[in-house]
Amino acid sequence: QVQLQESGPGLVKPSQTLSLTCTVSGGSITTKYYYWSWIRQPPGKGLEWMGAIYYSGSTYYSPSLKSRTSISRDTSKNQFTLQLSSVTPEDTAVYYCASRDSNYYTTWNYWGQGTQVTVSS
């Protein structure tokens, strides 16, 4: 029932901030007890969890990315966003938003289709 859609620029220059938005339909981002997350997959590599925002607004980040990652939300638009600062070509990846009801699932059961982001000058 929940549907997620990523949007944002497909090309970002090195040192700039990558900004993406996930628009949610079929459910509210404030519904107990859902997590809303960002996950990425660089070319030829596996999935990497970046961080998440809980239904309460609390945020959680991967230790390797915490210093330059920020996840926020706009409840009036039923959206949550990703900002990744000081990007390098190593940040090139397909970026996904995903969610799960933590009372029932131990993995991400709803996924967006993903969006390609390339970091290049």
Keywords:
mainly beta, single chain, 121 residues
Could you walk me through the main structural features you see in this protein, from its secondary elements to its overall organization?
The protein has no helices and 11 strands. Strands 2, 4, 5, 6, 9, 10 and 11 form a 7-stranded mixed sheet that branches. A 4-stranded antiparallel sheet has the order 1-3-8-7, with no helix packed on it. It is an all-beta fold. β9 and β10 form a beta hairpin.
Assembly state (oligomeric): single chain
Percentage of residues in DSSP E strands: over 45%
Biggest pleated sheet? 7 strands, mixed
Class derived from helix and strand content: mainly beta
What's the β-strand tally?
Answer: 11
Radius of gyration: 14 Å
**End-to-end CA span:** 39 Å
- Apparent shape: globular
Q: Give the overall average pLDDT.
A: 97
The helicity comes to under 10%
As residue ranges, the low-confidence spans are: none
Explain briefly what this protein structure is.
The chain is mainly beta and 121 residues long. The protein contains no helices and eleven strands.
